[in-house]
Amino acid sequence: MKFLFVHQNYPAQFLHIVRHLVAAKRHEVVFITEPNANEIAGVRKVPYLKPKLDVSEVHVAARELDNGVRRAELVYRAAYGLNHLGYKPDIIIGHHGWGEMLNLRDLWPDVPMLGYMEFYYQYNAADVGFDPEFPSDPLDFPRIRAKNAINHIALNLGATGQCPTQWQLSTYPKWARPRIELIWEGVDLEMCSPDPAARRRTLKVGDMTIKPTDKLVTYVSRDLEPYRGFHIMMRALPDLLKAHKDLKVIMIGGDGISYGAAPHHGGNWREVMLAEVGKNIDPDRVVFPGRVPYSTYLSALRRSDAHVYLTYPFVASWSMRESMAIGCAVIGGDVDPVREFITHGENGVLTPFLEPRTLARTILNVIEDKTLNRKLREGARAYAEANLAMGDYLDRYCQVIANMTGENPAPRPELETEVAKKAGRIRKRATADA
After folding, report:
1. Is the pLDDT of residue 423 over 60?
2. Fewer Cβ within 10 Å of end Cβ, the chain: N or C?
3. pTM for this structure?
4. Interacting residues of 356 by C-beta distance below 8 A, sequence separation 6+
């Protein structure tokens, strides 16, 4: 089969399915993307130039759509070149959020399209207005509604959508959900695996050395910002550090903005929160290493005595899945996207997102109660093995592709008979329709 993938940051969410298809050694995989240094053997990258974005002359509420149609035009030009050379994919797979796929129907109107639909924005629910510290502004509602413009155009392309969690799918209007497939994303359970010996080794992260006798709390986010509860975690630190003299904290994440807004008065959220609570935090016991190599991140999670995952009601992070697979004792914010993964007291514990002191007490309880800690670790890993296995994710992905194209691109042997039957039904239906 011929696969055409599209995402501005290759390979993005499609890393595992692309590798799976390449490993089958019977497919042609092409990926349209902005230029970057990432490479996967067996994949042909077709770059497009980054467009001019956030043009000031465009109304702020329309800029996301403007950015999307600019990308769509450049992706179309790259795809047009492929088409001119005689290339026609059997299926197009990409992320609708960036707008890149909007014009590809004009080039290949009969090719099945599977588009990643991550989140449907709401001005009166989910993340907006969730945190009273950052109240929503009614004057901003038009911009938030307009963020769904690309979603709506994509839903009317006659294509199929995909969504990674049930909660994210539930943010879409009821009329849209039947058009979107739930493809529950998996984790590499071998790479993200527990290592009991990690607590017997000394670990160094940034300027901090964690000895086997230390207690370690970990927190991870792409960027340290309120959307991922950074301000709540920082406010929990004084009580936490005061209660345990041998406790250390690693706060992994950059100083940029992935979601939400930058501080009103400039700087970054790490600086803002250190100005607020830094005088009550021992700098020798809290480290901010920034974004770290993946191996360092895994080592920190394996050594962790308690791992904190906080988020607004928004897209769930990969770090939550990976921390559960590693067998961390996870303390999660009590919000819908986290509750989809964590059952309180079984594979993690839930704590009210907006209560720093409750968070501190919960972390201390997880650290001090060895029986609970062991139960949470074992429960998290068991949950990952039962629900987040990469093989199950890839099987589901391939089944969706089979339903759309009539061919399963890389089935496991035990699934071949089932997929062949489905493909037969699809061919019969196509013949009847003709």
Report:
1. no
2. C
3. 0.90
4. 232, 233, 235, 236, 239
